[in-house]
């Protein structure tokens, strides 16, 4: 089955392969091989990434699995495994890099390079990454060292290109902890060997600061495998389980509802009755526990902490020589604190404009504020208020940055770092200073200062999670990743990718999050993972991002990987379901798509482990089970649908969170399933238990539904009297509650029962009433029942001789049954023949194709594609030819799969014709002379072979190029077959085409033979027009061969066959031409030339 799907995959694979960053080349269904190619190394990087994180197989599942296979995969382990030849991919990768002209590679051995700059030779060790340029015009390889920029050359260096992701990426004091030998340093955050610094705390004093990495030796107990800090959020979405469950329940309730049904023609049983009695027994009202009522957010969490704000300070006018110490005291009191506070955090986050307008008031302009802070700085220095001086320097630096005075800002920031203090305890301030200095060094291209400063900032990013909020630009983070790549440190790469992904996520640059999240997942999938990341959160994040970018296949693959990951939670799985429902099953569609069945089943399995802890999971489990049951029932997998409902009853406790009405609805649905399974006795037992729980003197709409199904069950068992009683009771209750859908169904069922019993008068009355009620309903969801009633009522009218009424019922049913597919088909016919409009015809044909694809009628789909190909071909543009070729190939694949040899042969022929029109002559012979003829010959049908050979010749005959190739098809292949089977009309047609073709190609001698044959055949058939055309062509040929007497003879024969009087205006011009030609022949060739005076 999957091989057959592979044959038609080409019809739908363009979108899939584009999302996978590959270009489809061909498909070999027999070998189960798909050939793809790549044009850039970025495509190879993405394709390899999707393979590593498990997307390729799921992508193909989306295309190859039909609804029943998706449902079977719930119970059976079904999946598509994808493998590819890594050596071939590596070869393509290297070829692409060679074409790029410059790429990054790792040395596979220690080697020397002749220096191309001043100084000694360049030496690179094994594992060093450098930039290489392939030889050009006989020169050797060029290399550039990435650490110092030194260059060198070598004839054939030993190298291996770096990973495609790395290829893409490489495209550009007082804060130190005083330590002594044998001091024990507790690592805060992460210690990564490729970075110069890390954050440590001295065990003896508790002081925290920067420590040189090369000055310590980690103990054996140190675990450096993780890339996340304690308490750091490893997921970006921040999902809350209660909210996700509520959203899922809302969607599930909309997607499953009990259908109103019109009747159409053991030990486990007792156990089922016990389960039903248990779940229907009275139970206490469900209440949320105190833990469930509380908000899932921790009261102490930062999200509930009131936003802190820093106080305002008045800026007086500064008079030179005056002591302003008193004016500065409020500011000093606020700033002179060695530890961090929330007010400081608010101050650090302010922009220069906010500092000038909100924190400081009373000044006329920014210069006055700068003067005030400068004097305050000097005063703090004299009074040795170092923390006040540090923070004032920081504020002055920010103001200077805001005015693009980077050199002055650098002075202030460096002063803030140089002030004497025992230890730097405000690490948010330190991070802000480092970050601003690094930005300034980068702007000023001061690499000597930039890299050491970046190393210190990296240590803070590796040690404190809050630092990422401070780093506003990505240049520093990219520098971390670059150094991690050059050092080949996977742990550092993972941390850097996480920081970059989180950085872009916080700034809502979602498209930039994707490559770093993908890379983080790739690192987590390696044989020896370098981090303990939970992949489910990463896949879920990717799924949402792909969804926003409308990459449906990749989004679906991400959600599938989320649900399959062992680390997934109910919240993750439900989030996948919510997003998939919103994307693939919009609100207007009443049912759930079948490819969601595995997700629902997996969440159902997860809820079984948590039902004792949270009542919400009972509700969720109930709706998931009913939804799955409806999916299986829709595809006639009744055993599995019933099994789900039985499992629900077995696992539901007597005291649960569901209202009794919802449980009754589920039991009524189970009863209907047993009726469909032709087990009416089981259905009756279920319905009697449901009815027994309802109040005796207080009816409800659900009682009407149950009584209607009781009527169907009794009817199935042959107890018509009790069936009538139940139908009538259902009608009375539905009428009382104005439950129109069930009222109409009950009336219809009673009418059909009366009809079965021969009571035609009662049947007509009830069916007419049902029609009237159905006509008042919104037709969506009731079409099938309504049409059934109309057809039965129409048949009854016809049997009674009331033809007019019967015809009305039939026409009404026909109007309701004309589906969108049928209407679109009619419109295609209208615009193609009756009211020709090429553009409209293409539009409706495209829509028709989309509808057919949903029906999975592959023959009709292939025919629709064939029609679309012809429509596009008639437009005559290059773009239209390409579209025609795509549809031709798609239909060809389906014809091959369906075994329609004749259709297949003409498909190959049509593809060859389009390649001929596109000028791709190298493929024309393959498609026409090899594929099409081979398939045609395999049919063994001589007439089909003859028609195909003639059609193949017509391709070249009607073309402007390679017209001589038509002769081979006409003369050497088709004509002998036509002669053998004595197909006179085909011989005449082929001889006429050969004569015309050879006349144009100036093969006059050979053309005479076929022209004479055409004449003889025309005379034998009595076709005067063909005879006249043959005489004319013979005359023209003899004229070209300078045989004037014969030319004159045949022209006169032509004229003798012309009708008299003339039938068309154009015949006048024809006569003029022939007589002029005859005059020339007589004057120049036949008669004696006149004298020349």
Automatic annotation (TrEMBL):
Q: Gene3D superfamilies from the xrefs?
A: SH3 Domains, Tetratricopeptide repeat domain
List each copy of the SH3 domain by range: 157-221
InterPro entries referenced in this protein's UniProt entry, alphabetically: SH3-like_dom_sf, SH3_domain, SH3TC1/SH3TC2, TPR-like_helical_dom_sf, TPR_rpt
Query: What SMART domains does the annotation carry?
Result: TPR (SM00028)
An example Pfam family from this entry, by short name, is TPR_12
Enumerate the PROSITE patterns for this protein: SH3
Is Transmembrane helix among this UniProt entry's keywords?
no
Keywords per UniProt: SH3 domain
Query: Do the record's keywords include Acetylation?
Result: no
* Listed name of the protein: SH3 domain-containing protein
| Organism listed in the record | Periophthalmus magnuspinnatus
Species lineage, top-down? Eukaryota, Metazoa, Chordata, Craniata, Vertebrata
């Amino acid at each position: 089955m999957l091989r057959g799907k592979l044959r038609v995959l080409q019809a739908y694979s363009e979108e899939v392969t584009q999302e996978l960053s590959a270009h489809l080349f061909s498909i070999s269904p027999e070998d189960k091989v798909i050939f793809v190619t790549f044009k850039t190394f970025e495509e190879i990087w993405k394709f390899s990434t999707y393979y590593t994180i498990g997307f390729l197989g799921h992508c193909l599942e989306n295309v190859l699995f039909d609804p029943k296979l998706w449902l079977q995969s719930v119970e059976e382990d079904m999946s598509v495994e994808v493998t590819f030849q890594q050596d071939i991919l590596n070869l393509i990768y290297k070829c692409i890099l060679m074409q790029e002209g410059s790429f990054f590679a790792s040395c596979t051995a220690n080697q020397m390079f002749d220096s191309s700059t001043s100084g000694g030779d360049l030496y690179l060790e094994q594992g060093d990454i450098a930039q290489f340029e392939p030889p050009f015009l006989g020169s050797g390889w060029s290399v550039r060292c990435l650490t110092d920029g030194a260059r060198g050359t070598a004839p054939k260096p030993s190298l291996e290109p770096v990973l495609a992701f790395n290829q893409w990426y490489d495209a550009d004091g007082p804060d130190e902890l005083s330590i002594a030998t044998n001091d024990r340093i507790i690592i805060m955050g992460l210690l990564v060997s490729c970075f110069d610094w890390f954050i440590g705390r001295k065990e003896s004093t508790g002081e925290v600061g920067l420590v040189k990495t090369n000055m310590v030796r980690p103990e054996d107990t140190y675990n450096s495998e993780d890339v996340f800090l304690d308490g750091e959020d490893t997921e970006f979405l921040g999902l809350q389980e209660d909210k996700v469950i509520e959203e899922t329940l809302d969607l599930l309730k909309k997607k499953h509802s009990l259908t109103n049904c019109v009747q159409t023609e053991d030990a486990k049983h007792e156990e089922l009755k016990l389960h039903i009695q248990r779940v229907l027994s009275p139970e206490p009202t469900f209440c949320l526990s105190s833990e469930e009522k509380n908000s899932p957010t921790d009261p102490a969490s930062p999200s509930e902490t009131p936003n802190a704000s820093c106080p305002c300070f008045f800026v007086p006018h500064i008079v030179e020589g005056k002591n302003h110490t008193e004016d500065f005291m409020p500011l000093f009191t606020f700033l002179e604190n060695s530890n961090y506070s929330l007010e400081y955090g608010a101050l650090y986050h302010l922009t220069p404009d906010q500092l000038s307008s909100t924190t400081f008031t009373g000044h006329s302009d920014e210069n006055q504020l700068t003067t005030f802070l400068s004097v305050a700085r000097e005063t703090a220095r004299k009074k040795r208020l170092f923390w006040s001086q540090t923070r004032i320097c920081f504020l002055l630096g920010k103001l200077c940055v805001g005015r693009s005075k980077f050199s002055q800002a650098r002075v202030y920031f460096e002063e803030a770092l140089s002030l004497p203090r025992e230890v730097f305890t405000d690490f948010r301030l330190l991070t802000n200073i480092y970050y601003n200095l690094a930005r300034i060094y980068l702007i000023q291209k001061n690499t000597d200062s930039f890299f050491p400063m970046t190393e210190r900032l990296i240590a803070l990013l590796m040690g404190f999670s809050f630092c990422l909020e401070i780093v506003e630009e990505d240049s520093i983070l990219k520098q971390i990743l670059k150094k991690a790549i050059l050092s080949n440190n996977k742990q550092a790469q993972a941390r850097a990718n996480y920081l970059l992904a989180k950085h872009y996520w916080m700034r809502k640059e979602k498209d930039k999050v994707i490559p770093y999240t993908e890379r983080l997942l790739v690192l987590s999938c390696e044989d020896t993972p370098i981090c303990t990341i939970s992949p489910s959160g990463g896949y879920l994040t990717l799924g949402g991002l792909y969804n926003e970018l409308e990459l449906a296949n990749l989004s679906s693959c991400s959600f599938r990987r989320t649900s399959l990951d062992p680390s997934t939670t109910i919240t993750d799985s439900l989030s996948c379901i919510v997003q998939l429902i919103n994307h693939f099953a919009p609100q207007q569609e009443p049912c759930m798509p079948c490819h969601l069945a595995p997700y629902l089943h997996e969440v159902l399995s997860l809820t079984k482990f948590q039902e004792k802890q949270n009542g919400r999971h009972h509700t969720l489990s109930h709706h998931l089970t009913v939804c799955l049951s409806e999916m299986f029932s829709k595809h006639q997998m009744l055993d599995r649908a019933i099994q789900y409902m039985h499992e629900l009853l077995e696992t539901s406790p007597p005291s649960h969170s569901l209202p009794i009405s919802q449980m009754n609805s589920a039991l009524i649905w189970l009863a209907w399933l047993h009726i469909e399974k032709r087990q009416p006795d089981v259905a009756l037992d279920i319905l009697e238990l449901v009815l027994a729980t309802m109040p005796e003197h207080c009816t409800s709409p659900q009682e009407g539904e149950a009584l209607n199904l009781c009527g169907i069950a009794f009817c199935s068992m042959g107890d018509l009297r009790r069936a009538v009683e139940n139908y009538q009771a259902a009608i009375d209750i539905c009428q009382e509650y104005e439950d129109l859908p069930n009222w109409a169904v009950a009336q219809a069922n009673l009418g059909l029962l009366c009809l079965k019993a021969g009571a035609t008068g009662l049947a007509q009355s009830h069916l007419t009433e049902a029609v009237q009620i159905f006509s008042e309903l919104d037709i969506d969801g009731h079409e099938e029942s309504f049409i059934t009633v109309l057809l039965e009522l129409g048949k009854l009218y016809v049997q009674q001789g009331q033809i007019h009424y019967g015809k009305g019922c039939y026409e009404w049913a026909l109007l309701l049954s004309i589906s969108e597919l049928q209407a679109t088909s009619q419109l295609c016919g209208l615009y193609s023949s009756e009211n020709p409009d090429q553009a409209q015809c293409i539009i409706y044909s495209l829509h028709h194709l989309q509808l057919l694809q949903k029906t999975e009628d592959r023959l009709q789909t292939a025919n629709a594609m064939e029609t679309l190909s012809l429509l596009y071909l008639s437009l005559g543009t290059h773009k239209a030819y390409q579209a025609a070729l795509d549809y031709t190939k798609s239909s060809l694949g389906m014809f091959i799969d369906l075994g329609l040899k004749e259709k297949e042969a003409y498909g190959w022929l049509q593809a060859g014709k389009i390649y001929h029109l596109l000028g791709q002559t190298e493929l024309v012979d393959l498609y026409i002379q090899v594929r099409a003829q081979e398939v045609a010959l395999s049919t063994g049908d001589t007439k089909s072979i003859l028609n195909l050979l003639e059609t193949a010749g017509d391709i070249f005959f009607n073309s402007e190029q390679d017209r001589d190739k038509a002769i081979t098809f006409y003369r050497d292949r088709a004509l002998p077959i036509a002669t053998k089977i004595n197909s006179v009309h085909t011989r005449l047609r082929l001889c006429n085409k050969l004569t015309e073709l050879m006349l144009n190609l100036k093969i006059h001698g050979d053309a005479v033979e076929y022209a004479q044959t055409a004449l003889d055949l025309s005379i034998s058939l009595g076709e005067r027009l063909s005879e006249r055309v043959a005489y004319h062509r013979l005359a023209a040929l003899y004229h070209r061969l300078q045989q004037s007497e014969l030319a004159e003879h045949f022209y006169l024969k032509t004229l003798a066959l012309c009708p008299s009087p003339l039938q068309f205006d154009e015949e006048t011009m024809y006569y003029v031409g022939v007589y002029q030609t005859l005059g020339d022949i007589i004057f120049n060739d036949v008669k004696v030339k006149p004298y020349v005076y």
